[in-house]
Amino acid sequence: MTEAIPVTADTINSWADDPRGPVALTCKQKLLPVEGEGGVIFPPTYADIGYNIDTLSDGTKVATIDSVGSQANRMEPIFERKPYSELVPQITIELHKKRDDDGTEYIERRSIFDLSHRSADAVVHSCPKLAPIVSKAYLALRRHGDADLLSSLAPTSLLFGVWDSRGGSGEKRPRLVRSIIRAWDVDPLYAAAQFNSIWKSLSEEQQDELKKEASVKKTKLSEKGLSDAPATFRKVSQTAAKQMPEFRDGRPNPDRRVLGGVVTRGPIERHITINLVALRNIRGATDERSREIRRYLLSLSLLAATADIDLFLREGCNLRFADDRDHWFAVPRRGVPTEIELSSAGGTLLDYAKSAVVPFKNKWPQELSYAFDLKEAKKLLAKKDEDEVED
């Protein structure tokens, strides 16, 4: 087996600058449930369809365990923490004032890294002082192809993809870093539960009074925890319920059963890709500035892609990395991919990023905290709706 090629600053420069260089950097990580091989895990559920499970032509079922958009939202917040926080502007949004139980007043805040649509989020466009700055950055990108302002203001928007559908530009940019988790050869399981309330212990008089009150309020006692409630079928929309009855041919319909996770016979895999073609298509006002932007964004991409993010994805889905090290490959336009040593290059990547950010720090906004304005949010509601895509 060929030894992996070490990564140096010159190597990273060539990935960013050379149009004949690799088209992508890729990695496939094997994951395991913390309970061990073959453990039951819970994929995300989606309205009306339940789990997102595809059936291949050979009958193999493949489940989405974490979508591309969800993975992006898990990777981006690493830039809130040291040492990565020193590499990007730390913009926060002040939502409103709140009080603790003891009366202490504080401001509810959100980092721009926590927003689903990043710098193009509706909350950003509802900040009177921040929205014009963001709009200027997107218009420069749209009209002149100049990513300088956005790279200096919100570089992670270029890392994880963004669509300014709520602003005036309509600019859309592909992800430089893409990650998804799938489980192969799965079988869905189902759950059933029975909630036993205090109902049987109440007197007949109490029961009658509660029944009357529920009738007046047009609510169900079971929904308020005052009556027993079986949980065997999941709730769906009225439209879906017409197509998916609870019983079919005299038997419980699996499409309506409460979901109980999936058992996996095949691997659980996380695929990570850094798109070098998309990176090299990003530019600034001059050739030199274009190089600086690409190197800066690549440095952030490498840090985000190689960071060991938490894999507690949701209740019932706590995963871990199966291998001690990752195997990264540089993928050429033609020929065989070359293995590169990124797993042990953390120090090199961080040092490179600290150098790459220097030409941008003097353009970082002096003000980093911005107030959300309800009036501005209401103005967004008056605008014509745009079609939305997964973040």
Question: How does this structure look, described?
Answer:
By secondary structure, the chain is α+β, with helices and mostly antiparallel strands. Helices cover 28% and strands 27% of the residues. The chain contains twelve helices and 24 strands. The protein has helices spanning 9-17, 68-75, 131-144, 148-153, 156-159, 204-217, 238-243, 276-280, 287-306, 346-356, 358-361, 374-382; strands spanning 5-6, 24-33, 40-41, 45-46, 50-51, 53-55, 61-66, 92-99, 105-111, 162-163, 172-173, 177-184, 186-191, 193-195, 229-231, 247-248, 251-252, 258-264, 268-275, 312-314, 317-321, 328-331, 338-341, 369-371. The strands form seven sheets. Strands 1, 2, 6, 7, 12, 19, 20, 21, 22 and 23 form a ten-stranded mixed sheet that branches. A three-stranded antiparallel sheet has the order 3-18-13, with no helix packed on it.
